[in-house]
Amino acid sequence: MKVGIDQIGYFTPNKYVDMVDLAHARNQDPNKFLIGIGQKKMSVADPTQDAVSMGINATLRYIDKIDQSKVGLLIFGTESSVDQSKSGSLFVKSALKLDPAVRAFEVKEACFGLTAGLMIAQDFVRLHPDQTAIVIGSDIARYGINTAGEVTQGAGSVSLLVSSNPRILELNEGHSAYSEDINDFWRPNYSKTAKVDGKYSTQVYLDFFKHTFSDYKRQKGLETKDFAAIAYHLPFTKMGLKANRLAIEGVDEETNARLMDSFTASKELNANVGNIYTGSLYLSLLSLLENGGLKAGDLIGLFSYGSGAMAEFYSANVVEGYENELDKAADEALLDKRRKLSVPEYEKIFSASLVDPQNNVELTSDEKKGRYYFAGICDDIRQYRVK
Ligand code: CAA
């Protein structure tokens, strides 16, 4: 039985900073950010968008296309959690009016959270082929104003529907996983911004990629040339480019050109949204599916990495007619309709977002009609409303 990704929905908030403006404000050469880091724009979440509201908005992108009565599992992967106890899944389940029988919980392992959820969902659907699973990754990447990591911030969510007989991607059984207890990136409970050893995290990411990619190929008897494309976790697009260069070392010219072209197709959305932590690999996958000219049966490799650190390489095959399940125009419109912030405006919003709203103060949102937002805290309970 085939199990895989049947629907993909993404959401990013309605404001952004242009990397050229940010470079000028930080006295940097714009080409460092555009080429050296590989980012063009970054989405900015104001205090009314959080991991939960973005996760609801991402899932709303496809909810009307699916049979909601079949959803048996709802997993929320995040490292921007809104509560130490209650999972983000329950807020999402309530907003989407899903059945109380749905099993709902949250998972965490840095940017690996959505992949962890996807692997659990895949096993669940193999055991319960009549049911489906929603898996959400939703995050706001915050390093801080005027830090080295500032250029690698962003905000957004990706929601996947996992089912039997999927309409977009069939997941192949098996994977190569690798983990080590290290400190490359982390966010203590007392901090709203991440702690990071950026150069070290890049090195570990590349080491884990080399290890899992070669181990996966060995396990499956595959060669690099068998992949039509490889999608990477992209905290910033230069990171994936470095991994892709490792992947294509020593391959024939045709494979080299194909994997470079598919990498270019896979980074377009990420270069304009920024880092969305758990959702980054799947935003890149969406970008690849929309821009990569893939055909039915093509083999795609997927590399997931979460700091701390945990990595996994796995693969999937493209399903005939996958393009009919995507909405490239609407996905691009989400980016094009964002409002450009000046750097001082972004700094003000960023600082405001570091402070929790006071109890019983209602927040208003300038998001579009039909979108969910965080409306503040009432008697210590988070309130989510739709415009
Ligand atoms: N034109 C073109 N390129 C230029 C340039 C110019 N004018 N000036 C500099 N560059 C290039 C540099 O040569 C360098 O390229 P290489 O990486 O190929 O050597 C690149 O721009 C960056 O320059 P620096 O290394 O000098 O940049 P920096 O010291 O400011 O830091 C960074 C860059 C380490 C990526 C920093 O932004 C950072 O720490 N980011 C956050 C770390 C991160 O995202 N890590 C990812 C793994 S963690 C993760 O994914 C999160 C998770 O699990 C939760």
From TrEMBL:
Top-rank EC class of the record's enzyme: transferase
Protein name: Hydroxymethylglutaryl-CoA synthase
InterPro entries: HMG_CoA_synt_C_dom, HMG_CoA_synth_N, HMG_CoA_synthase_prok, Thiolase-like
Keywords: Acyltransferase, Transferase
Acyltransferase is among the record's keywords: yes
Taxonomy, superkingdom: Bacteria
Active site: residue positions: 79, 111, 233
CDD domains in alphabetical order: init_cond_enzymes
EC number per UniProt: 2.3.3.10
Record bears the keyword Transferase: yes
GO BP, sorted A to Z: acetyl-CoA metabolic process
Organism this protein belongs to: Lactobacillus gasseri
Domain Hydroxymethylglutaryl-coenzyme A synthase C-terminal: 265-351
Pfam families (UniProt xref): HMG_CoA_synt_C, HMG_CoA_synt_N
Binding residues annotated for (3S)-3-hydroxy-3-methylglutaryl-CoA, in chain numbering: 29, 143, 242, 275
Family the entry assigns: Belongs to the thiolase-like superfamily. HMG-CoA synthase family.
Domain Hydroxymethylglutaryl-coenzyme A synthase N-terminal: 2-164
Gene Ontology MF term list: hydroxymethylglutaryl-CoA synthase activity
